[in-house]
Amino acid sequence: MQTEPQTRHSHTLPELRFSLNLLYVGRLLLGMKSALLPTHDSLDAFDERIEDVTDELVATELLHEAAILAGDVLPTDSLN
Predict the structure, then answer these.
(1) Domain ranges of the chain
(2) Which of 1, 16, 27, 40 is most solvent-facing, going by the fewest CB within 10 Å?
């Protein structure tokens, strides 16, 4: 049973969290092979993308919380 109200941003949060977790795993795996890489450009690209997704996740979480505080929640019967 879900206890937190659902907003129009609720469906985006799990997708962003999953994407961020995949980026962290990819960064870890790529970092393990860093000795084989001629440059660290690919690591920098991963780090930049991680920062971008983190910023987007934080912004979406803030929008979600603001919507809850403002009472802009989805009706519970539309979730089924």
Answers:
(1) 12-72
(2) 1
pLDDT digits (tens, 9 = 90+) for 61-73: 999 999 999 999 9
Residue written as token pair 């910023």:
55
CA-CA-CA-CA torsion sign (56, 58, 61, 65): negative
Q: What is the CA radius of gyration of the chain?
A: 17
Query: Hey, what are 41's tokens?
Result: 């450009």
Q: Tell me which DSSP letter residue 38 carries.
A: S
Q: CA geometry: angle at 22 spanning 18 and 26, to 5°?
A: 170
pTM for the predicted model, two decimal places:
0.80
